[in-house]
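Re-run with default settings, no changes from the original entry. Doing this only to confirm the output is reproducible before filing.
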Amino acid sequence: MHDGQILTVDSANGPGIRISVFVSGCTNHCKGCFQPQTWDFEYGEPYDDDMEEFIINELKKDYYQGITILGGEPFEISNQQVVSGLIKRIKTEVSGKDIWMYTGFLYDVDLQPGGSRYTSVTDEILDSIDVLVDGKFVEELKNIQLKFRGSENQRLINMKATRINNEVVLWDK
């Protein structure tokens, strides 16, 4: 996996102050994407142990509410194993921080068994995150007044409640 960018002290990609990790590689190629350079799976720097250590140590700072993993596309099959490893470390080493992820894929279609982006670690990821923003960016549905999403079709999913209830529960805070 490659990392296109790491934003520290970010407030645009979830509530509070966050660290945002933009992974590289995306096959969705949404018209009007705000970071088309991240479509390239080799954009940015190769993700390595030093980069992960930086993310973990940065996230330990008191002023961070959490981390957001976006892209590119974290749920591309080639990215999921590394993303899963990062999330496991966060859960083990950094308590009390929330985890948000963005995907152009649909939770209840693509990320379920038999779905186009379902792998052996997809459920581990979904069970460990707090909010999933799903759905492709649709330029014709762009709305700059929406909180934490770019187009009206995208959903902010409360993953804890969704996994417990076995149906999509929207995040509404």
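Strands lie at 2-10, 18-23, 45-46, 66-71, 98-102, 131-134, 155-158. The longest strand covers residues 2-10.
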